[in-house]
């Protein structure tokens, strides 16, 4: 390569995401002939089967390459490819863009009372009954707060280790499940969530260290879309993310959650824990369509007067210069379910609360709390679309100082959701 001449992957910046270019540059410096890169290949729209099959064949040539499967939601394939194969794909007429399949990481006591969920449960009896929330995370341990007096874990899908029975070797997903739908069975109702009667589906996409690949997260979302009707999945909770390096229009995970949204599933995603710095919203939280949740600190008081944005909660604008987050929910010192023997129990023994619970903070906690609130709204009015839900939550939220996003007010949100029934509930005309 002559002086000043760009490498092939730098010349192909229009077809490669910035993180993949960086990874290819790193591999070139290490000069490893057999090294491969985990990638997601997005194909062009309205593609002929013959051209698609040719891409498959090209990706499988060479002893180093491996194609792991297809990602229907984003018109893509995922696998590990040698840089030379990536170079050939850049010029292929069927390939739209190639992404580095980078790492994604996992980012209730007073909380349910401070946002008004307990009042709605007690006075209006909206507890998320009949609504299923999908927790896409590290798994779900079958905690008594989820299985007694009735087992509300309808399905468990393990995309990491392929196990069939519910488990959680990390603990993060179990805490999130409790944030959304724990009933406080082992705490006499003290640590109950906004939707203690909601059903759950657990999708394990992150390993025991709380990390995983973007492609696995997309597969988890894809499973929810395909099985929406079977399990009545109305909400997906994503307390995970990765740094955002490009527009939501190109980001594969952002595009996947949009597809879920347009298939009638409300998606709640964590803003991230990189605050108080601006422009730290992660993906898929950067997507303007879905509900991106920031964390508030309720200072462990029921009154709302002292509630404020948590310092760690990521701030907008997004990389596209859009306003995010959309709403705030309690995320600081949240007591929820603990998975016995999990990594969290080993790493944070000082956070244990009795035998069955653990205290955690983050937008990871705020997100499933918001998902539980969404379940309350959908019980109050099952005809709400995802856009309706987002509009209601944002328009009824309480102003947070210095932010366009507000703090959840479940009483007002449920009241407005019920008003929608006046023009949404189908009527049967008489002949």
Task: Report how far apart the termini are.
Answer: 81 Å
Largest sheet: 10 strands, mixed
- Rounded to an integer, what's the Rg over CA atoms? 22 Å
Instruction: Indicate the mean pLDDT.
Output: 92
The poorly predicted ranges are none
Percent of sequence in beta strands? 15-25%
What count of helical segments does DSSP give? 16
Sheet/helix structural class: alpha/beta
Task: Assign an overall shape.
Answer: globular
Layout of helices and strands:
Blueprint: H1 8-11, H2 18-30, E1 37-43, H3 49-60, E2 66-71, E3 76-81, H4 83-90, E4 95-100, E5 103-106, H5 109-114, H6 117-124, E6 132-137, H7 144-147, E7 153-158, H8 172-181, E8 199-204, E9 211-213, H9 214-226, H10 228-231, E10 233-238, E11 240-241, H11 252-262, E12 266-270, E13 291-297, E14 308-309, E15 327-330, E16 334-337, H12 343-347, E17 352-353, E18 357-360, H13 363-380, H14 386-396, E19 398-399, E20 406-407, H15 410-419, H16 421-424
Parallel strand pairs: 6-8, 6-10, 7-8, 10-12, 12-13, 13-15, 15-20
Antiparallel strand pairs: 1-3, 1-4, 2-3, 5-9, 5-11, 13-14, 16-18, 17-18, 19-20
Keywords: Hydrolase, Protease, Serine protease
Pfam families: Peptidase_S8
Family: Belongs to the peptidase S8 family.
Explain what this protein looks like in three dimensions.
By secondary structure, the chain is an alpha/beta fold. The chain is 33% helix and 21% strand. It is built from 16 helices and 20 strands. The strands form 4 sheets. Strands 6, 7, 8, 10, 12, 13, 14, 15, 19 and 20 form a 10-stranded mixed sheet that branches. Strand 17 and strand 18 form a beta hairpin. Helix 8 runs parallel beside helix 13, helix 9 packs parallel to helix 11 and helix 13 runs parallel beside helix 15. The chain starts with 7 loop residues before the first helix and ends in a 7-residue tail after the last helix. The mean pLDDT is 92.
